[in-house]
Structures are given as C-alpha cells and as structure tokens.
Amino acid sequence: MERRKKGFTFAVLGISLFVISLMLLLQIPDLYLGSLLTMFIAVVFIGLGGAIAKGYDIKLESTTEECYFCNGLGKIKAIDGSEICPRCGGTGKALPEDSA
Hints:
By secondary structure, this protein is mainly alpha-helical.
C-alpha cells in the first residue's frame, strides 16, 4: 500500500506541476523555455507515478537466483583443488538466460 500511495503522490505532483506550468508560466514570454522544461518534468513524474502505483517497476528488477552449476558458491571442485565456475564466472549468480 505504501508504494501505491507514493506512486499516486508522484502522479498528483506531476499533474499539478503541469497545470501550473501550462496556465501560469507559459503566459510569461521570458519563462517560455522554462515552462516547456517544467512540463516535460511533469510528464515524467506522471509516468513514473503511474508505473509505481500500478506496480510495473517491480517487474523490472533482475532476479538474483543462484547459479545451478556451482550452487551459488562461484567455485567448483576440480582435480587439483577448486576452480572458478565456468558458467557464472565466479559470481555465483544465475545468468539471465538460466532464469527464464
């Protein structure tokens, strides 16, 4: 619920910033470019707030599953001790194509 409230706040802030910029700042000739920049920032806030409120930003986070070859250790047993895992390169994290 906290994320929805934060996203809704971003969207409302963006809408109000857009309206203020459109109605007040755009009318002043010296602030024309600043008004357009403010409107762009407001549209970004609206989009960001909508994405956070709907939960689309959670889907963008990458998974941090363990590598199946070394079980997340980053090293494998070899004849003469241990070696770096050839699948994950020693990170212990699964590659994106392994997560699918």
